[in-house]
Amino acid sequence: MAVENAPGHPAYSGTFIPEVWSTKLDYKFYKSSVFGEISNHDWEGEIKKHGDIVHIRTIPTITVSDYTKGEVTSPEYPESANVDLVIDKAKKFFIGIDSIDKYQSDLDLLDEWAKDAAEQMKIAIDTQVLGSIYSQVHASNGGATAGADTAGFNLGTTAAPVLLTKSNVYDYLTDINTVLDEQSIDAENRWAVIPPWFANLIAKSELKDASLTGDTVSIARNGRIGSVSGLTLYVSRNLAVVSTTTQVVVGHSKGLSFASQMTEMQHFAQLEGTFGQAMKGLNVYGFVVNAPEALARLVCKKG
Predict the structure, then answer these.
(1) Cα–chain-centroid distance for residue 141?
(2) Which domains does the chain have, with CATH numbers?
């Protein structure tokens, strides 16, 4: 806004005094994507195009039984079904800019827009992954009677969610970790994806004592959640919300396989039919819960 003029003084703003545009774009806060951290990418190099299928072979459980001297035994012929990782999903973007805008701007707008498109694509895929896998956990790894051995842990249901507070949040993280123990899931490299309000409760809980997280610096001072109850915590706004309940997912990377390939990234120095340039990208990918017993679910609300 220009400085006001005295009566009779001419206003030159917008005529002899040009507008000055900021040389910095407003910083955009992207919702964090976590699918790359919580999944395995063992089959990434085996996909080539949309429609590819990777047949993941699973290891059968071998029967061990008592032996009596002299008995005649018959061999077991182990078999287990394959799990198919189908590359059946694709997302795209297509952006363009007129030549006049490009040359009159002091910013590389097309490049900035392409960066934003890549971030938005990660968010879209993240939302799709987290919005799908929560419903595919093992039957013993969720609900009011979770636990393959004990059925003794209430991890909540959509109709009766767990109400989390700063007083009980650590207990529920411990319970869901024990549910994975009862499935004999590797203790190392376990993770949990939680919403921001969940992380807020942790920061206000007794976990602010550094000794509980195993960190040398209290999370109340360094702002990092880190590892809690053996789980590496990832904060995400992309978790599924069903009937106002948040579907928190916990697990091990061996339970989720993800494969992605940016099959096409094209830049058009001269877009046909226009005086302008354009860029478009295509991301082809697929994911599958190949070991449901390695994933668990906590259905919760803020208490």
Answers:
(1) 20
(2) 27-64+71-303 (3.90.1690)
